[in-house]
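This follows on from our talk about sequence and fold. Go ahead and set the record down below:
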Amino acid sequence: NALLKTLEEPPPRYHFILTAPASDLLLPTILSRCRIVRLGALTTESVYQHLKARFDLPDATLQMIAEFSEGAIGRALRWAETLAAPDPEGKSKSAQGELGALQNLLRVFARLGTASLEEALRLAYDFREACKALEGGAEERSTRAALALGLEYLIQWYRDSLALGYPNASLRFASHRSEIASLARRFAAAERRRDLQTLTEARRAILGNANAQIVTEHLFIQLLRA
């Protein structure tokens, strides 16, 4: 309540700048007192080219870092610097493990284009296991934060599937265009737009302390329904 009052009647010559990865993570009472400025992320290709000019790492690694950076150049640079630098403390090994976990997430996403409804619970389990490997790390993620991050990437996967319908659209996971196209062929655009809402609600539920197993199992059943 004190914050709301301050935002509503700020002291003279004061301006507050609030940042959030998504507006739906803020309370409506806070949003209603703010002017929203949306800052677009860099394209995956822009991040990749910047990394390629600075780091002597395999192209596949640079592409993956660019895709999972979500257009945040600072995040991409920290990742690449950790992998490229001499590593007496084992940080590079940790970063490689995180990249491996992200690859496992992509394998789960790719199966959504072909998996049957009977495989939903297995996919939910594999998704949770991949997210579990994202716990801790440089950002010291909690279990729920890791699951929310995995869902954020899955949301982007579905956004990419919708972007395929537009000429010259930039995809976040461009190196997985064929798997994303498989999802787009299987489900109509209207269904995938509805799934985006379902994914957003699942992410909100995870951050709101709902049971992770129940949320993810229900989610994948919804995503694979006929």
